[in-house]
């Protein structure tokens, strides 16, 4: 695949001028920027197709002939339709802006300026957090009761006894003998 250097330079200029025009405040210039960028994309898609060749249809069983890849052409048609829709939307916005405000340029929004002048507030870092965040507070464990499943009533927590499982009453520690 060989690329045409003139078309590559032309695409670069179209992208550069289009991006410059997109950054303007005039809606008409933004529209011209969109048109330039979309035409630059169309040239890029056209260049990716390579040289012109035969159609991709197989006629008379001649499969070895050089064929033109139809995918860039399909992408080019899709890009043209998308650009047309975008230009139509921009024209409608420009017309509406002209009817309402009799101007083509975007003005600063006072609400945006007010919000931008406020200090930054991060809800996770700037909000006050209560000191105790656990739902199992210590005072709840001391006054809690257990529900006895046999009686269905609450009972007090068992008091820790001096009897341990290792101590079976004979005064000698149980070393896992099971007695």
TrEMBL record:
Residues 110-179 are annotated as: Disordered. GO terms for cellular component: plasma membrane. Its main location: membrane. It is a multi-pass membrane protein. Residues 164-179 have a biased composition (Basic and acidic residues). It comes from the Bacteria. The keyword RNA-binding does not apply. It is found in: Cell membrane. Keywords: Cell membrane, Membrane, Transmembrane, Transmembrane helix. InterPro entries: CPA3_antiporter_subunitC, NUOK/Mnh_C1-like. The chain crosses the membrane at residues 6-23, 30-50, 70-95. Belongs to the CPA3 antiporters (TC 2.A.63) subunit C family. PANTHER family: ANTIPORTER SUBUNIT MNHC2-RELATED. This is Multicomponent Na+:H+ antiporter subunit C. It comes from Nesterenkonia xinjiangensis.
């Amino acid at each position: 695949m060989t690329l045409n250097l003139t078309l590559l330079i032309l695409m670069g200029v179209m992208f550069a001028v289009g991006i410059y025009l997109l950054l303007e405040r005039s809606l008409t210039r933004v529209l011209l920027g969109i048109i330039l960028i979309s035409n630059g994309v169309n040239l890029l898609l056209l260049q990716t197709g390579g040289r012109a060749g035969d159609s991709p249809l197989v006629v008379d069983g001649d499969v070895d002939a050089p064929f033109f890849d139809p995918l860039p052409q399909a992408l080019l048609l899709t890009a043209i339709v998308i650009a047309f829709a975008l230009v139509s939307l921009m024209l409608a916005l420009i017309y509406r802006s002209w009817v309402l405000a009799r101007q083509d340029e975007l003005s600063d929004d006072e609400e945006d300026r007010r919000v931008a002048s406020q200090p930054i507030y991060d809800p996770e870092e700037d909000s006050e957090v209560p000191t105790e965040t656990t739902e199992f507070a210590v005072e709840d464990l001391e006054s809690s009761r257990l529900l006895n499943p046999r009686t269905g009533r609450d009972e007090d927590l068992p008091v820790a006894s001096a009897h341990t499982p290792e101590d079976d009453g004979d005064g000698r520690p149980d070393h896992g003998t099971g007695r």
